[in-house]
Amino acid sequence: MLKGIDPRLNADVLYALRDMGHGDVVVIADTNFPSGAIARETVLGELLRMDNLTAAEAAEALLSVLPLDTFVEDFAGRMEIVNAPDEVPPVQAEVQAVIDAAEGKPREMLGIERFAFYDMARQSYAVIQTGERRFYGCFMFRKGVIAPED
Description:
By secondary structure, the chain is an alpha/beta fold. It has helices at 11-19, 35-39, 55-63, 90-103, 114-122; strands at residues 25-29, 48-50, 76-79, 110-112, 126-130, 139-142. Helix content is 31%, strand content 16%.
């Protein structure tokens, strides 16, 4: 246990988040996402796991230490529902609430078409598979910067 670090963040996830640079992407995936195959194509090259958490719980833990990019529109994204891209299911609304809380203001995630999401995930830094069983519990976060102290 470390002081000030969310205990839901395991050592492998912390290593990956620390190793990422500004603009790098991390993917949070549900249990149905082809995480293993896609993770082998990422920069990290291996799958990370947060199996005992929902997507919102994993997002909350990640965003306790990960700054989101403030310079781009695609700071965060959600996998769109096939044939209903504007529909936001409860799992996605929960993660949106986590983002808003972490950012201290509403910042709406972008919708990403399913196959475009797969392609983006392959080019990401890392994929983290959660225990989320609800469909479309897949998200991306782009790492921002931490400003110098005044």
